[in-house]
């Protein structure tokens, strides 16, 4: 018995050693064919996960890396860790004179605007300004499927990964979804697929980046404060395809005229999807989802409700078919898809009452889309949050017929006016926990308790994740007591 145990340990040790050797060999290969950064001075502006990943990768590739982050060093464990590993860090401010050094490249955090003085000075010096996804592309052995758009990016990215994995592919999530692309790219090989969520901020900082498949979910007037105009925002999104060729594919939502116009401005092969018309791609006809005249599944079989999720499913179907996944596999994976945390996430049932966490719905449009997937007469809606000064007149038609509303936060009084117009009764709540308890008490078997606030969370909670997590926690507490 002891011999067998020692034999097992020996095998495990060999496996671990081999894994380390494989990792070192892969790094060695990277070093052989990526020499662009060797002994070049590179500035990484802003940390967070993507900044740390970029700094560590550039250091591995032989760059002389400096990291500059606004958070004070003594409060900055990431900067402390980088310094311990021999990477130069400057924290607490962004000194413009730093750019007087002979940097060959600036890699910035996507959230840092281009009118930031450090970025402006770098551009004046004609210094390339990248985001970390460009580095991921340069080192990636794996083909990239890139997903961007105004709404639905995270859900569609996750749907695509689930369907491809169900089809026997090795799909790895990365990018704006929370896993730094340059970290995941280092671990991937040529048999993997990188399923990369991409924001407009990230796509402004690319040069040679080229996905094999690009997905544009939709275009809405968002982040105009960052981009300046809707036209510049759309151009940032459309950067995703600028290096693509006819051998690559752009999966495009042609429900929108803006997207139809973009289709004429790409070298890639356009694969359209639509819920409004039959197209040479993925489309909705009645209650059936098709790909090029082949029925794939029914709307009722999609695992998450809502008209927006029909669009997300069509984008996923198009991508999956381009990747060689069978219809039955697609149908099975999309039928079992349970949503993404805080994005119309099905939480569970208590006494036949279904709970959905849509804390990510921080505006009217998102809540309209969430409500579109349900019978209003069976919905108890929890809404309210930060008061941005807007009324909710545009939401009135979508509120009509609701069973009840539970309102909280700064915007509650404005939502009450909308509820009155819609003829819906409501109750007040002090916070999300109180609202969840009250919504459960108002609901009956067969009903839905839907957290879809139509407001940001910052009046009461640090972010929508905190708000959604409290909803999930309260659901579990109620369930334990039943």
From TrEMBL:
Gene Ontology cellular component terms for the protein in this record: cytoplasm
Superkingdom of this protein's organism: Bacteria
Molecular functions (GO terms): ATP binding; UDP-N-acetylmuramoylalanine-D-glutamate ligase activity
The reaction(s) this protein catalyses: UDP-N-acetyl-alpha-D-muramoyl-L-alanine + D-glutamate + ATP = UDP-N-acetyl-alpha-D-muramoyl-L-alanyl-D-glutamate + ADP + phosphate + H(+)
Pfam families registered for this protein in UniProt: Mur_ligase_C, Mur_ligase_M, MurD-like_N
UniProt pathway: Cell wall biogenesis; peptidoglycan biosynthesis
Keyword entries, A-Z: ATP-binding, Cell cycle, Cell division, Cell shape, Cell wall biogenesis/degradation, Cytoplasm, Ligase, Nucleotide-binding, Peptidoglycan synthesis
Residue ranges annotated for the Mur ligase central domain, each copy included: 147-320
GO biological process: cell division; cell wall organization; peptidoglycan biosynthetic process; regulation of cell shape
This enzyme's EC code(s): 6.3.2.9
Domain Mur ligase C-terminal per the UniProt entry, residue ranges: 342-454
Residues that coordinate or bind ATP: 149-155
Intracellular or extracellular location(s): Cytoplasm
Similarity comment: Belongs to the MurCDEF family.
PANTHER family, per database record: UDP-N-ACETYLMURAMOYLALANINE--D-GLUTAMATE LIGASE
Role: Cell wall formation. Catalyzes the addition of glutamate to the nucleotide precursor UDP-N-acetylmuramoyl-L-alanine (UMA).
Record-given protein name: UDP-N-acetylmuramoylalanine--D-glutamate ligase
Annotated organism of origin: Streptococcus varani
């Amino acid at each position: 018995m002891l011999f067998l145990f020692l034999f097992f340990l020996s095998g495990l040790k060999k496996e671990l050693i081999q894994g380390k050797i494989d990792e070192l060999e892969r790094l060695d290969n990277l070093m052989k064919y990526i020499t662009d950064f060797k002994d070049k001075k590179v500035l990484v502006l802003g940390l967070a996960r993507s900044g740390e990943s970029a700094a560590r990768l550039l250091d591995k590739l032989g760059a002389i890396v400096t990291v500059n982050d606004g958070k004070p060093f003594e409060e900055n464990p990431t900067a402390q860790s980088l310094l311990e590993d021999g990477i130069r860090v400057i924290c607490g401010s962004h000194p413009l004179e730093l750019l007087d050094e002979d940097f060959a490249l600036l890699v910035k955090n996507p959230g840092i605007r281009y009118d930031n003085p450090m970025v402006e000075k770098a551009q004046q010096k004609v210094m390339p300004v990248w985001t970390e996804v460009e580095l991921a592309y340069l080192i990636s052995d794996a083909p990239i499927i890139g997903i961007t758009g105004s709404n639905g990016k995270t859900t569609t990215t996750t749907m695509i990964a689930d369907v491809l994995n169900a089809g026997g592919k090795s799909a790895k999530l990365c990018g704006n979804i929370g896993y730094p692309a340059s970290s995941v790219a280092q671990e991937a090989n040529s048999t993997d697929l990188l399923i990369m969520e991409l924001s407009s901020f990230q796509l402004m900082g690319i040069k040679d980046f080229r996905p094999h498949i690009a997905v544009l979910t939709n275009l809405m007037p968002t982040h105009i404060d960052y981009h300046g105009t809707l036209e510049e925002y759309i151009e940032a999104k459309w950067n995703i395809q600028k290096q693509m060729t006819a051998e690559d594919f752009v999966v495009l939502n042609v429900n929108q005229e803006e997207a139809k116009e973009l289709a004429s401005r790409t070298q890639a092969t356009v694969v359209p999807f639509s819920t409004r018309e039959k197209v040479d791609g993925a489309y909705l006809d009645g209650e059936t989802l098709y790909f090029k005249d082949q029925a794939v599944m029914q709307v009722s079989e999609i695992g998450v409700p809502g008209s927006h999720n029909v669009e997300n499913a069509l984008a996923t179907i198009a991508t999956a078919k381009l990747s060689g996944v069978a219809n039955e596999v697609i149908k099975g994976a999309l039928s079992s898809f349970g949503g993404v945390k805080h994005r119309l996430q099905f939480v569970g049932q208590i006494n036949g009452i279904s709970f959905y966490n849509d804390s990510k719905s921080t505006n009217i449009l998102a809540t309209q889309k969430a409500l579109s997937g349900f019978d209003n007469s069976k919905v108890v809606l929890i809404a309210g949050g930060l008061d941005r000064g807007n009324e909710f007149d545009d939401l009135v038609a979508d509120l009509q017929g609701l069973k009840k509303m539970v309102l909280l936060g700064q915007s509650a009084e404005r939502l009450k006016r909308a509820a009155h117009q819609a003829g819906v009764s409501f109750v007040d709540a002090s916070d999300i926990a109180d609202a969840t308890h009250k919504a459960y008490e108002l609901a009956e078997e067969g009903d839905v308790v839907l957290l879809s606030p139509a407001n940001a969370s910052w009046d009461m909670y640090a972010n929508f994740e905190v708000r959604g997590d409290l909803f999930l926690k309260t659901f579990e507490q109620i369930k334990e007591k039943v």
